[in-house]
Amino acid sequence: MAASQKLADTLLAALPCVRDWQEQFYRDLHRNPELSHQEFGTAREVADRLRGFGYEVHDGVGGTGVVGVLPNGPGPAVLLRADMDALPVEEATGLEYASTVRATDADGIEVPVMHACGHDVHVTALLGAAQLLADGREHWRGTVIALFQPAEETSDGARGMVDDGLARLLPKVDVALAQHVLPAPAGRVGVRAGALLSAADSMRITVHGRGAHGSMPQAAVDPVVLAAMIVVRLQTVVAREVAPGESAVLTVGSIHAGSKSNVIPDRAVLQLNIRTYSENARTAVLDAIRRIVTAECQASGSPKDPEFELFDRFPLTRNDDDTTARVSEAFTAFFGDRCRQMPQQTASEDFSEIPAALGAPYTYWGIGGIDPEVYQRAAEHGRVDQDIPVNHSSTFAPVIQPTLDTGTQALVVAATAWLARA
């Protein structure tokens, strides 16, 4: 580990030069966000910079994905990944570089656009790390792969790159690494072996009734009542069908039925979101939902079977033990007590689709993005949940520094745990 620490220190000595362009690049990217599958400008900027650093660049992978490959002699191939897409959120940060962008989404609806999840931090940090590794290539051997992924927010960006032949563009990958900015004090990094981010499944359920006049309920099978009974019964799934040692979340986020007060409709549509940390729990919860919905439809005399549609599915992010231990050791040596154990997150990611397809172990860590003094004041008053904006909030605004420095450092330090020459 001493060799990798020395290599990281050598490469990161040039960080001030990278910082000169990174901060303005970040402001420009934050000001010009792009929705999932529409990251054309971002991808163009990323590809141009990678070519300037000396990488072999493959663009248009899976639509707007960009992959930079830097071969540098025999040695391990290390893949570093950042996601690029923004969200349909109207920014309310008040920042001088706040987004005012509006765009047309996949449904043809005009929406505001904001980097409300910090993907602009990820892109900027990875570009900085890519330059540092390229400029210092005389100090290491192996291959660096800088992968910029589209459409993480819609859960199909990683799969799109894989299906578009990503593996054919790369040498055998020895390890894959990724990170995410979180509502924690800037300057910190968080690691965790095993299950870190939950699997996520969204489900759309259509239940059928028989419509009638509101004054004649005896002639109807009321899908509103049916939907209400389903919602109540679903609350028992986690409480009574998931083992106490397991974690799961089941949320009914949307119910739609009818259009007028005196008309009993003929159907109701519910939308659910499920988060789990194991395949056993995932299967058990999904099976329980189908069983309960089907039974309630039968109990209500529904004239048709219910319909189930799964969408926006994210895989479980389960960090490899050995890979995580190696990165954790490198982080502890570099960051000291700023490296912490990261709690499990109920957020979800599609990053793991990439190493799974490439047959590579991986680890995924978090970096803080909140002004440490602001976070400390909130913590002292027991108001972190109330006062600290979280990802996907219209007021989520990572401080530029030390967030960018930490993200860039973390990628370089992690990569050098494999690239250092003995």
TrEMBL record:
Q: Which Gene3D superfamilies match?
A: 3.30.70.360, Zn peptidases
Q: Answer whether the UniProt record assigns the keyword Lyase to this protein.
A: no
One of the GO BP terms on file:
diaminopimelate biosynthetic process
What the record notes about the co-factor is:
The Mn(2+) ion enhances activity.
The Peptidase M20 dimerisation domain is annotated at 201-297
**Which InterPro entries does this entry report, sorted A to Z?**
Amidohydrolase (IPR017439), Bact_exopeptidase_dim_dom (IPR036264), Peptidase_M20 (IPR002933), Peptidase_M20_dimer (IPR011650)
Q: Which domain of life is it from?
A: Bacteria
Which Gene Ontology MF annotations are present? Answer: metal ion binding; N-acetyldiaminopimelate deacetylase activity
Q: Which UniProt keywords apply?
A: Hydrolase, Manganese, Metal-binding
User: What is the designated name of this protein?
Assistant: Amidohydrolase
Provenance organism: Mycolicibacterium elephantis
